[in-house]
Write a structure and sequence with these properties.
With 315 residues, this protein is an alpha/beta fold. It is built from ten helices and 13 strands. The protein has two domains: 124 residues, Rossmann fold (3-Layer(aba) Sandwich); 175 residues, 2-Layer Sandwich (Dihydrodipicolinate Reductase, domain 2), CATH 3.30.360.
Length: 315
């Protein structure tokens, strides 16, 4: 018998991407609401409790409401919002986080799907803290640029609807200037940092794709570190993973430029270590599709693991 999956919020950007990855699969049955039922609480409750696994693609408050509507003890949940990413009773949905974490996901009843900025940042910082190369109290900075699809329907319209009179002609802009982006608690919790990083996000005039940069002034870290040390720790951490890779240093040294769109349409996360050994500097750059490994692709990977299906199905 196939597993029944309900996407609560399937009309949104992430929901549509998840739906497209699941449609046509013979190992799943998708449950749907009619357009006029999507805001009907009773119908949503029925679907949530009928599903073997519910995927929530909703704003935080609506996601919390959906969870409260579930009284079937067998219904499992993947929440793509930020509502539960630091909640103690929820499993963090990054299978490559550390050895054995995929097994925790397989057993999870409640799973928080990571945010795109946070997943990339955690993927860089957590292994370095675990390996003892970066102190947990280190003043980490993170700079990032994402495609505008990461901002949902309103930002997509702002970039794409040139006839509305409310759009933007900007090729690029920064935001989050209060330094309190909603992903920061998630980054602190799952990276192992003692303090909030200085995180500066930005948006470019392209739909999908993302680069997250973590600069490391190695000369100032006690004990002495080299770009090779950083690369070695990341390579060891992800050596047995399917979707996270660390590019060889020799290949990275030859790169003149790095563009944010080259992994679009994939579920990959690719790490580069750029270094200047003479000056004791390194920058780790994470590259991914913000709607792939950064959202819907990651959700489908987690769904496959939770239901005991082929991990790469739909990816």
């Amino acid at each position: 018998m196939t597993a029944k999956v309900f996407i609560d919020g399937e009309a949104g950007t992430t929901g549509l991407q998840i739906k497209s990855r699941l449609e046509g699969r013979s190992d799943l049955t998708l449950l749907h609401l009619k357009d006029d039922e999507r805001k009907d609480t009773d119908r949503r409750r029925e679907m949530l409790n009928e599903a073997d696994l519910a995927v929530l693609c909703l704003p935080d408050a609506a996601a919390r409401e959906s969870v409260s509507l579930i009284d079937n003890p067998e219904t499992r949940v993947i929440d793509a919002s930020t509502a539960h990413r630091t909640a103690p009773d929820w499993v963090y949905g990054f299978p490559e986080y550390e050895a054995g974490h995929s097994e925790k996901i397989a057993q999870a009843k409640r799973l928080a799907n990571p945010g795109c900025y946070a997943l990339s940042s955690v993927a860089v910082v957590h292994p370095l803290i675990t390996a003892g190369l970066v102190p947990a109290d280190w003043p980490v900075t993170i700079n990032a640029v994402s495609g505008y699809s990461g901002g949902g329907k309103s930002l997509i319209a702002e970039f794409e609807d040139s006839q509305s009179g409310t759009g933007t002609d900007a090729p690029f802009f920064t935001y989050g200037h209060t330094l309190s982006h909603k992903h920061i608690p998630e980054i602190i919790r799952w990276s192992g940092l003692d303090h909030a990083p200085v995180f500066v996000p930005s948006v470019g005039r392209f739909s999908q794709g993302m680069i997250v940069q973590v600069p490391l002034p190695l000369w100032s870290i006690p004990g002495g570190r080299t770009p090779g040390d950083i690369h070695g720790a990341l390579t060891d951490h992800y050596s047995k993973t399917q979707y996270v890779s660390v590019v060889p240093l020799e290949e990275t040294r030859e790169m003149i430029r790095l563009t944010p769109e080259i992994l679009n349409g994939t579920n990959e996360l690719r790490l580069h270590v750029f270094g200047n050994e003479a000056d004791g500097q390194a920058v780790v750059m994470a590259l991914l599709d913000n709607l792939g490994k950064g959202a819907s692709g990651q959700a489908v990977q987690n769904l496959n693991i939770m239901l005991g299906l082929e991990e790469s199905a739909g990816l």
